[in-house]
Design a protein that fits this description.
Length: about 575
């Protein structure tokens, strides 16, 4: 649950809960959930995109609730997966990536040849993993420029020892996910604005949809900071990061992402669903990952909400709670803000109606300002007290709070939670290519999602919180395995770099010299184990005059293997 997780929330988080804009609609806040207006969607996303005519085609009759009996929420029919053990961090991360890495390797090599046939990239899967691992190290250790990780004064060994700066920059310049030659021209039927990253979006979303869902879900937007050139870039002055790409996410209240979609400038009708306008369609497109008739609880804010949307979801066995705008409640007569304000802080009014067999409750509650909420499974009762500060009395007071408000605030913050986690260690490497920014964001999101899955398994196995890895240590562990796991590190530090083969040829010209194994065998990085001999002999590394008892079991060559002279490593790499 989100209430069990405490994080340091950075100032530059894209978390909409953290915005303190006075232009935003007020939301009652027990846990800090504050919703924002969306002013950057196309014109068909306005209130007029939600038809006022109800699904039944008849006029709704809203009646005041005269009973204090709480509504009985339907039981959730799903269940969380059984966890028999906690797996290694790298397992969770690679599971969420699926087979996208081999696709990137293939397309990057193809793109390098399309750019310059005389300079192929020749990228390998191990190198791509090292490239991603370096990106993760860079997100943890922030430096203003990428080259500073390799320069002498600011050198970071975990980055510089893995790959040379020229090789890393060459991979970055050729990093590609899809074939440009297969893209349809703009204006044709098959045109796809997201063609450059389509394989990555398809593979990752298909994997996320297979994750077992929790009971409480939420749909909200996410902003990926970007100021480069792109037609899909959005501007929202109410966000901490005003320029960027917009994503729609389906998350659990613990932050785990189950589905996502990148906004391209137009929201299409969900397949197999009625067209209820852009705002409602965006929710219907997200819930394709939710099983039917399992009584999952879905939460969203007033930009998405409408009567038609709640009725459609309830008929599919998905119960909802949302804030709602007053002009989307047709025929529902509620007290004005002035009238309800006279009744005092904590006063509320509840109205109910039934549409196509779905009972809806609408509550208008006054705290500092009025707020409208609508639900298909919960109402105002039972009433509880919340603490609020009274400016006139200059003390904390108890304010009556409807059950729907507490339920909404408890479960609505899943997208904002993952936003705040992403902002802690975001890949900050800049690029003019928009698809680089999106791909790096997806790598970050899959990493955070894998950590949240790891935490869920730990909680299911009742592992104490102190024994669980933090997001920082989890990301460092994944980066280390990506850079060094089952891979050879080409750079050698602390020793003079020499060419063993050239020095051996020089030694042969001076006289007899012990035969060396073939260079392919000597540098194959496989089964070269040190063993001890009974007698001391001269080290066979050219240029070394040391005496040693250590020899390579595979090569049969005596070599120094001490802290001062690590000839064993130099012999098998240079």
């Amino acid at each position: 649950m989100t209430s069990d997780i405490n994080y340091r929330i950075p100032v530059d988080s894209e978390d909409s809960q953290l915005s303190d804009s006075s232009d935003e609609e007020y939301l009652p806040c027990d846990t800090g959930a504050i919703e924002s207006d969306y002013s950057d969607i196309e014109s068909n996303d306005s209130d007029s995109s939600h038809p006022d005519d109800e699904l039944s085609g008849r006029r709704n009759i809203w009646k005041s609730s005269l009973t204090n009996v709480p509504r009985v929420a339907p039981d959730w029919k799903g269940s969380l997966p059984f966890a028999n053990k906690v797996k290694n961090p790298i397992y969770y991360f690679k599971f969420l990536l699926g087979n996208i890495l081999p696709t990137i390797v293939q397309q990057s090599n193809l793109y390098s040849i399309q750019k310059d046939i005389s300079r192929p990239l020749n990228l390998l899967l191990d190198e791509l993993e090292q490239f991603i691992g370096i990106l993760f190290y860079m997100s943890i250790i922030n430096l203003p420029r990428a080259r500073l990780y390799w320069t002498a004064n600011t050198r970071i060994a975990n980055v510089a020892n893995i790959m040379s700066v020229k090789r890393w920059e060459f991979i970055k310049s050729c990093f590609h996910i899809n074939d440009n030659t297969k893209a349809c021209p703009f204006g044709t039927d098959g045109y796809d604005a997201l063609h450059k990253i389509r394989p990555m979006l398809t593979i990752t979303t298909n994997i996320l949809k297979d994750i077992t869902l929790g009971e409480n879900l939420c749909v909200d937007e996410q902003v990926v900071p970007f100021k480069g050139q792109s037609k899909m870039k959005q501007y929202n002055p109410q966000k901490p990061k005003k320029w960027g790409f917009k994503f729609f996410l389906l998350c659990g209240n613990d932050g785990i992402v189950y589905n996502y979609e990148m906004y391209m400038g137009k929201i299409l009708q969900a397949e197999g669903m009625p067209d209820i306008g852009a705002c409602g369609n965006s929710v219907l497109r997200m819930v394709v990952a939710v099983p039917l008739n399992q009584n999952y609880k879905l939460y969203f804010d007033n930009w998405f909400s409408s009567i038609n949307l709640l009725v459609i979801l309830a008929q599919r066995g998905i119960q909802c709670v949302s804030t709602v705008r007053a002009n989307r409640l047709k025929n529902c007569v509620l007290p004005t803000d002035q009238e309800i304000k006279k009744k005092g802080r904590g006063s509320f009014v509840e109205k109910k109606t039934v549409i196509n067999g779905v009972e809806l409750s609408v509550i208008k509650w006054f705290d500092n300002r009025s707020v409208y909420l609508m639900s298909s499974f919960i109402g105002a009762h039972p009433i509880s007290d919340v603490k609020r500060f009274d400016r006139k009395k200059k003390e904390s007071i108890n304010v009556k709070c409807p059950a729907i408000v507490k339920n909404y605030n408890k479960n609505m913050g899943g997208v904002d939670l993952i936003d705040s986690l992403l902002a802690l260690y975001r890949i900050h490497i800049r690029s003019r290519k928009w698809y680089h920014r999106v791909a790096f964001h997806i790598f970050d999101m899959m990493l955070v999602n894998s950590w949240l899955l790891y935490r869920r398994d730990c909680n299911l196995l009742q592992i104490p919180r102190k024994e669980q890895e933090s997001l920082l240590t989890f990301k460092i562990s994944v980066a280390e395995v990506l850079c060094k796991g089952n891979k050879s590190i080409n750079s050698v530090t602390g020793n003079k770099r020499i060419s063993v083969q050239s020095e051996y040829i020089k030694k042969c010209k001076k006289g007899t010299a012990q035969c060396l194994p073939n260079s392919e065998i000597r540098k194959d990085q496989f089964a070269h184990w040190p063993k001890y001999n009974d007698k001391k002999v001269r080290c066979k590394l050219p240029g070394c005059k040391g005496i040693t008892k250590v020899a390579c079991d595979k090569c049969g060559v005596s070599l120094c293997f001490t802290p001062a002279n690590n000839c064993f490593t130099i012999f098998h790499k240079n």
